[in-house]
Specification:
Length: 259
């Protein structure tokens, strides 16, 4: 497996999916898409990864799909590629563990869509987000037309998608596109600290909560509540439940260490 531009770095229960293609502002070429999908699969499979940070380094998160590469692709090229292209970002969205995007600098187009695939987004005060695809005469292709309106509402999403305008960190926070804004030098450390909370947290309960929230957002309330009932019953079969409740009774709340 090649991993020239995307690697999974694991320490203390947290996996960092690190984009590292600085000469092209971390542009998400076909190779980057494939490496991203592989890193997400590794983060999903590894038991020593309990939470994930997605980070592009101190200068840029990702300036979108690789426009130079895309400019040579025909309609049929894209028909052949589009599942894998979107699948790379979907693979991050489907990591069954808490995922935080740490955004320094630009998160544009596919870069913004990658941030949208995380559960929460922390932005540096120098972050700039946006979906400028329309300015290239194309649409978003990795969830921007779907995850963005679900996150910030259809009107705000359409404003960003129709105009392609860039949003600075303070506006991104105000419209709910990011969850926290911190000094640029601190954003990765803040994201790591958030993810580290889950290094000894209940993995099966977290997995069930994430799946229930994400699936619940796609269905009507009754179906969502039914999914919740199944999840709730299901966790009673897990070691997490035994560990958590025994620890509460013996030591009080919030002290359980989950294996
Ligand atoms: N693709 C390829 N190369 C890029 C990209 C990109 N998206 N962004 C920047 N680069 C390259 C530049 O061409 C330049 O290369 P070189 O030094 O060889 O000329 C280098 O990175 C530095 O860029 P700039 O000189 O432009 O740096 P600036 O600081 O002046 O500007 C910007 C930075 C604002 C980020 C500017 O480069 C820009 O607007 N980039 C394009 C942003 C964009 O339109 N993104 C959307 C792309 S379309 C898309 O993402 C569709 C999503 C489909 C799904 C994705 C699935 C993963």
């Amino acid at each position: 497996m090649t991993s020239e531009f995307v690697r999974l770095e694991v320490a203390d229960g947290v996996g960092t999916i690190r984009l590292d293609r600085p000469k092209a502002m971390n542009a998400i070429s076909i190779q980057v898409q494939d490496e991203l999908r592989d890193a997400a699969a590794e983060a999903t499979e590894r038991a020593d990864v309990r939470a994930v940070v997605v980070w592009g380094g101190e200068r840029v998160f990702a300036a979108g799909n690789d426009v130079k590469e895309m400019s040579t692709m025909s309609y049929t090229d894209m028909v052949d590629r589009v599942d894998a292209l979107q699948g790379a970002v979907n693979a991050v969205a489907r990591i069954p563990k808490p995922v935080v995007a740490a955004v320094n600098g630009y998160a544009l187009g596919g870069g913004c869509e990658l941030a949208l695939a995380a559960d929460v987004r922390f932005a540096a005060d120098n972050a700039v987000l946006g979906q400028p695809e329309v300015l290239l005469g194309i649409t978003p292709g990795a969830g921007g037309t779907q995850r963005l309106p679900r996150l910030i509402g259809p009107s705000k999403a359409k404003d960003l998608l129709f105009t392609g305008r860039f949003v600075k960190a303070d506006e991104a926070l105000a419209i709910g596109l990011v969850d926290r804004v911190v000094p640029a030098a601190d954003v990765y450390a803040e994201a790591l600290a958030w993810a580290a909370k889950f290094a000894t947290a209940a993995p099966y309960a977290l997995r069930a909560i994430k799946e229930t929230v994400d699936r619940g957002l796609e269905v009507d309330l009754e179906t969502g509540l039914s999914i919740e009932r199944q999840a709730f019953s299901g966790v009673f079969a897990t070691e997490d439940r035994t560990t958590g409740m025994e620890s509460f009774i013996e030591n009080g709340p919030g002290k359980a260490i989950f294996g």
